[in-house]
Task: inverse folding
């Protein structure tokens, strides 16, 4: 089971956060430049990182980078990595406990790249695994459109959903829609990408932002010759985990 499959299985497994008992609230070395020929700028950072102030949080970055070395806590049978978490903050969600079978709804940002395709296939497989515990599973694909996802969330939150899982397309724009859905009283589970509110019952909080970016940048620092040039192809501005991913990478490059 690869990590992307685990991530999506975790999102679906934790729909139980709203329906059962507990949820998760917040689930390389530098190149040696050698003899610099007397250049006294050798130890000066190559550039000053330009972080998006709406997303960059140095304290949070340090926390996520430290979690790379933390042993996950296991909440499952021991052979289910999607039921593990890194230093989670657990909250009591027993007020949302109900008897099944349940109607589960899912608002998906998109199925527009291989990672999301694998995740969507994994989630559907998890639905089948629950069998008779799930009466109905309704999923809407926002097709990478904020406007469509806002409409999708409004439709689902007015429907017959016992829990609503949301993977936001972008962070700031989807925040009001998620808050509006929270006001209906339906247990809301946000995963993969975040929103600027703590109203969801459960947020499966990734370290795939800062930590992913730092890991990738450290690999490049270790394997690209000193003085080499790196081209970064960025996508989807305004998505928290992608903004923080680039911020961490810039920090690593500046220190190399």
Result:
């Amino acid at each position: 089971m690869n990590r992307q499959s685990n991530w999506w299985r975790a999102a679906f497994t934790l729909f139980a956060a709203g329906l059962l008992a507990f949820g998760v609230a917040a689930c390389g070395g530098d190149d040696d430049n050698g003899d610099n020929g007397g250049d006294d700028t050798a130890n000066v950072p190559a550039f000053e990182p330009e972080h998006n102030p709406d997303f960059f949080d140095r304290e949070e970055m340090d926390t996520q980078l430290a979690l790379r070395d933390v042993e996950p806590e296991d909440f499952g049978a021991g052979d289910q990595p999607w039921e593990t978490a890194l230093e989670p903050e657990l909250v009591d969600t027993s007020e949302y406990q109900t008897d099944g079978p349940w109607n589960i709804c899912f608002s998906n940002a998109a199925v527009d790249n291989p990672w999301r395709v694998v995740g969507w296939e994994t989630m559907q497989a998890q639905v089948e695994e629950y069998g008779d515990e799930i009466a109905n599973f309704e999923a809407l694909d926002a097709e990478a459109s904020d406007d469509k996802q806002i409409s999708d969330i409004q439709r689902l939150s007015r429907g017959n959903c016992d829990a609503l899982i949301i993977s936001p397309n972008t962070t700031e724009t989807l925040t009001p829609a998620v808050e509006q859905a929270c006001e209906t009283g339906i247990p809301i589970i946000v995963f993969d990408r975040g929103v600027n509110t703590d109203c969801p019952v459960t947020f499966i909080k990734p370290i795939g932002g800062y930590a992913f970016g730092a890991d990738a940048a450290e690999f490049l620092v270790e394997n690209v010759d000193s003085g080499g040039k790196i081209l970064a192809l960025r996508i989807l501005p305004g998505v928290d985990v992608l903004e923080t991913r680039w911020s961490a990478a810039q920090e690593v490059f500046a220190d190399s």
